[in-house]
Amino acid sequence: MWRWLHPYAKPEATYRLVDKLLPWFAALTFISLAVGVVWGLAFAPSDYQQGDSYRIIFLHVPAAIFSMGAYSGMAIMGGIALIWQIKTAEWVIPAIAPVGAALTVVALLTGAIWGKPMWGTWWVWDARLTSELILLFLYIGVMALYFAFDDARTGAKAAAILSLVGVINLPIIHYSVEWWNTLHQGATITKFERPSIATSMLIPLLICLAGFLFLTISLVMMRLKNEILRHELGRPWAQHELEKK
Amino acid sequence: MAFDSFQDFITMGGYGLYVWLSFFLSFVVIALVALETAIARQSLKKKSQQLQNRQQRLAKRQRPVSQ
């Protein structure tokens, strides 16, 4: 496996691979999000308790899950960058951070909008909401650190360290609804027992989850392509790539 | 369909404002990220062009010296 992986330490090889895969992931994103969102909005049944307001779940839960998923991906890349000193892994960090931050903003916004009719308030300083807000600050911190140094490698290293340290926040977000008695409802699908949600609602939610996964991957790939080109701008292959289209 | 009419679908049992606002804002936030990425690519294109022009100018200037 290592022999297979090794060529991708070379930026050009990574670029070619990402360039080839991106259209497929973009297509999967559009198909799954279109199906999932239309199904969730128009065909899934109303909730017996929350009425139609629960339909926000089809955005809120996928965004929240992948706001954390993107962070773990970024932390793994941070680890790889620190241990093996691979430039391409360093460049994935600024590719993921803004996407993860956007997903966090979506989770916070949709959560606030959902909270207003259900809880009677846009925001409370409870554990789930606060730890998710801290996740947003971590993303912003990683981006800021990455670009804060004159020497790009130093910035990348600092950002990698922060993304690794911030991982401690992920289990806090996940278990916050169990550890603390809070306004936020408990986990619905991300628990080990049977999901406590009707199948007719679960299926469109799972499709939306797949859609957000593909969306996250597509956006990260788009940004990674830019990041690779930015660092390789002086090289003929990158110039040739930018002249195309 | 979970709704009896298009009107029902829009009002969402009184929660229409919340549901549609959520979907709209989420779309805007994600579209902004995609847009920023596309703009960044365009500016890279421009930078690459400038870099190449400068390299060509330098190459022209250096040629007589090497002869």
TrEMBL record, chain A:
<keyword id="KW-0472">Membrane</keyword>
<feature type="transmembrane region" description="Helical">
    <location>
        <begin position="56"/>
        <end position="84"/>
    </location>
</feature>
<keyword id="KW-0997">Cell inner membrane</keyword>
<dbReference type="InterPro" id="IPR045062">
    <property type="entry name" value="Cyt_c_biogenesis_CcsA/CcmC"/>
</dbReference>
<keyword id="KW-1133">Transmembrane helix</keyword>
<feature type="transmembrane region" description="Helical">
    <location>
        <begin position="91"/>
        <end position="113"/>
    </location>
</feature>
<keyword id="KW-0813">Transport</keyword>
<protein>
    <recommendedName>
        <fullName>Heme exporter protein C</fullName>
    </recommendedName>
</protein>
<keyword id="KW-0812">Transmembrane</keyword>
<comment type="function">
    <text>Required for the export of heme to the periplasm for the biogenesis of c-type cytochromes.</text>
</comment>
<dbReference type="Pfam" id="PF01578">
    <property type="entry name" value="Cytochrom_C_asm"/>
</dbReference>
<feature type="transmembrane region" description="Helical">
    <location>
        <begin position="133"/>
        <end position="149"/>
    </location>
</feature>
<feature type="transmembrane region" description="Helical">
    <location>
        <begin position="158"/>
        <end position="177"/>
    </location>
</feature>
<keyword id="KW-0201">Cytochrome c-type biogenesis</keyword>
<feature type="domain" description="Cytochrome c assembly protein">
    <location>
        <begin position="26"/>
        <end position="184"/>
    </location>
</feature>
<feature type="transmembrane region" description="Helical">
    <location>
        <begin position="21"/>
        <end position="44"/>
    </location>
</feature>
<dbReference type="InterPro" id="IPR003557">
    <property type="entry name" value="Cyt_c_biogenesis_CcmC"/>
</dbReference>
<dbReference type="InterPro" id="IPR002541">
    <property type="entry name" value="Cyt_c_assembly"/>
</dbReference>
<keyword id="KW-1003">Cell membrane</keyword>
<comment type="similarity">
    <text>Belongs to the CcmC/CycZ/HelC family.</text>
</comment>
<feature type="transmembrane region" description="Helical">
    <location>
        <begin position="197"/>
        <end position="221"/>
    </location>
</feature>
UniProtKB/TrEMBL annotation, chain B:
<keyword id="KW-0997">Cell inner membrane</keyword>
<comment type="function">
    <text>Required for the export of heme to the periplasm for the biogenesis of c-type cytochromes.</text>
</comment>
<keyword id="KW-0472">Membrane</keyword>
<keyword id="KW-1133">Transmembrane helix</keyword>
<dbReference type="InterPro" id="IPR007078">
    <property type="entry name" value="Haem_export_protD_CcmD"/>
</dbReference>
<feature type="region of interest" description="Disordered">
    <location>
        <begin position="47"/>
        <end position="67"/>
    </location>
</feature>
<keyword id="KW-0812">Transmembrane</keyword>
<comment type="similarity">
    <text>Belongs to the CcmD/CycX/HelD family.</text>
</comment>
<dbReference type="Pfam" id="PF04995">
    <property type="entry name" value="CcmD"/>
</dbReference>
<keyword id="KW-0201">Cytochrome c-type biogenesis</keyword>
<keyword id="KW-1003">Cell membrane</keyword>
<feature type="transmembrane region" description="Helical">
    <location>
        <begin position="17"/>
        <end position="39"/>
    </location>
</feature>
<keyword id="KW-0813">Transport</keyword>
<dbReference type="InterPro" id="IPR052075">
    <property type="entry name" value="Heme_exporter_D"/>
</dbReference>
<feature type="compositionally biased region" description="Basic residues">
    <location>
        <begin position="57"/>
        <end position="67"/>
    </location>
</feature>
<protein>
    <recommendedName>
        <fullName>Heme exporter protein D</fullName>
    </recommendedName>
</protein>
